[in-house]
Amino acid sequence: MKVAIHHRKGSFSDRWIEYCKIENIDYKIVNAFDSDIINQVKDYDVFMWHHHHGRFEDVLAAKKILFSLEQAGIRVFPDFNTGWHFDDKVAQKYLLEAIDAPLVPSYIFYEKEKAINWAKKTSYPKVFKLKGGAGATNVKLVKTQAEALKLIHQAFGKGFAQFDRFNNLKERYNKYRSDQDTLLGIAKGAGRLIIPTNFAKQQLPEKGYVYFQDFMPDNNHDVRVIVIGEKAFAIKRIVRENDFRASGSGNIIHNEAEIDLRCLEIAFDISRILKSQCLAYDFIFDGDNKPLVVEISYGFSIDGYIDCPGYWDNSLQWHQGVFNPYGWMVNQIEKQVSN
User: Fold this and answer.
1) Which residue from 15, 112, 194, 236 has the least number of CB within 10 angstroms?
2) Which phi and psi angles does 119 have, rounded to 5°?
3) What's the whole-number mean pLDDT along residues 221-239?
4) Residue at which a domain ends, from 214, 249, 279
5) pLDDT tens, position by position, 270-303
6) Which position has the higher pLDDT, 14 or 190?
7) Residue that is last in its domain, among 46, 77, 108
């Protein structure tokens, strides 16, 4: 098997390259942004690219290149089944509803009048989200009808910046208070009030739709399950202080005994139905303590899972010990090539 890898320091590619070296897998490093990238990888069996939702050039190019190569018979990671809905919560809503997955009840409107009528009749609180963003960015708790109507008017007016500069500063301050960031980080956040990121400069405002989910009270944590092929690992993330969000809190429990096995069962079932290579699932619980999917993503932060003490197989059997999920990704696509 010959593998081409787009390398970005700090991404999955670091681990893929290391694994290929250890296992003597024939690989080469390529630059996906070269104009002739298609010709560069045509003689390879596999092309792998850990593209990132926060890099504008990745957003522009990654799916176009990956799915074009897949059409030409080259195995890619992430493939279409795994990545077409990446960083698009609205697409995930449609997908999960279509397969009858236990999704948190979600509402999307493309017409202002319909959104307003719904907002005047529904109960509160609700959770407002933009379709893109990770780590609980672009997510707000809407406590009243007035707040919902204000968001609706903005959604069908000037829209929302993909990068919320004030919220970024608030996030950095909260992380500083919990020893997850430094004074330098706060200073950088303050600087972003004046000088936006390149991503923020290039990305157009989000407008023309509005998306809400039901708020599930009394959740002091969520469960993140990552399924790669026939294996899975998971963490429990504690909700931030004086907040309702667990994603991005940095307060993580890695003890397998803390993981609700129903979440694993649901995640394995969905991955099987979707034929995905790798998917991360966020679960919370409803008033009857039933697990519901909040959203899904093929990508995840590497650092949060280093301390996982083991993994489960698809029979929910626990395997204690160190494991390499990035090697699993290579193995998964190697099986696809073999088949």
Assistant:
1) 194
2) -60, -30
3) 95
4) 214
5) 999 999 999 999 999 999 999 999 999 999 999 9
6) 14
7) 77
For range 204-232, the mean pLDDT: 94
- Structural domain harbouring 297: 221-329
Question: Is residue 115 within 8 Å of 210, Cβ to Cβ?
Answer: yes
Q: List all residues 6 or more positions away from 168 whose beta carbon is below 8 Å from its beta carbon.
A: 137, 189, 192
pTM score, whole prediction: 0.89
In sequence order, what DSSP letters do the residues of 81-127 get, joined into one string? HHHTTTT-HHHHHHHHHHTT--BPPEEEESSHHHHHHHHHHS-S-EE
63 is a domain residue: yes
Task: List b or e across 245-266, with b for residues whose CB sees 16 or more CB atoms inside 10 angstroms.
Answer: bbbbbbebebebeebbebbbbb
State residue 61 phi and psi, 5-degree precision: -110, -30
Pair (47, 109) in one structural domain: no
Q: Judge whether 337 lies within some domain.
A: no
Q: Rounded distance, CA 122 to CA 100, Å?
A: 23
- Cβ–Cβ < 8 Å for 6, 30: yes
Inter-residue contact 75 to 336 (CB < 8 Å): yes
Mean pLDDT, residues 312-339 taken together: 95
Predicted confidence at residue 173, as pLDDT, reads 53
Regarding beta strands 126-129 and 210-214, do their DSSP bridges make them parallel or antiparallel, or are they unpaired? antiparallel
Beta bridge partners of 252: 237
Whether 172 maps to a domain, the answer reads: yes
Domain count, the chain: 3
Residues 225 and 210 in one domain: no
Which residues partner with 228 through β-bridges?
231, 278
DSSP string of 204-243? PPB-S-EEEEE---S-SEEEEEEEETTEEEEEEEEPPTTS
- Both 199 and 285 in one domain: the answer is no
Closest CA to 219 of 288, 284, 290: 284
**Is 197 in the same domain as 96?**
yes
Structure tokens at 25: 């897998």
* Residues 95 and 115 grouped into a single domain: yes
What is the β-pairing status of strands 139-142 and 126-129?
Answer: antiparallel
